[in-house]
């Protein structure tokens, strides 16, 4: 329920395969559980109902998730995926503000 409070803002969750105290499957399911709230704002959920393979991030309209190899912590893989997700949403947001007149790189 706490994650659903983020709607309609973009939300990305990253998990680590060996971080069993943080429950990667539970984190994925918690993100999936936000989909009905995001649908109230006319956003699709994640493109799958299955937890993705290790190091295979998935992105929906406003939701993103990855399960990376390794233990608890933040790695370069995490940062790369967070920035990719943020860049996509900022690019879309700025294009909307500019009336889609400018392409943003």
Topology:
Elements (H helix, E strand, L loop, with lengths): L10 E6 L7 H9 L2 H6 L17 E2 L3 E6 L7 H22 L8
Parallel strand pairs: 1-3
Antiparallel strand pairs: 2-3
In words, what does this structure look like?
Strands 1-3-2 form a three-stranded mixed β-sheet, sandwiched between helices. It has helices at residues 24-32, 35-40, 76-97, and strands at residues 11-16, 58-59, 63-68. The N and C termini lie far apart (35 Å). It has 105 residues and is α+β, with helices and mostly antiparallel strands.
Q: Keywords, please?
A:
alpha+beta; 13% strand; three-stranded mixed beta sheet; 3 strands; 105 residues
- Low-confidence spans: pLDDT under 50, at least 5 residues? none
Termini, distance in Å? 35 Å
Q: Strand content of the residues, in percent?
A: 5-15%
Helix content: 25-40%
Count of extended strands? 3
Helix/strand-derived category reads alpha+beta
Query: What is the spatial order of strands in the main beta sheet?
Result: 1-3-2
Number of H- or I-type helical stretches: 3
Order of helices and strands: EHHEEH
Radius of gyration: 14 Å
Q: Which overall shape is indicated by the principal axes computed on the Cα atoms?
A: globular
Biggest pleated-sheet summary: 3 strands, mixed
Mean pLDDT: 91
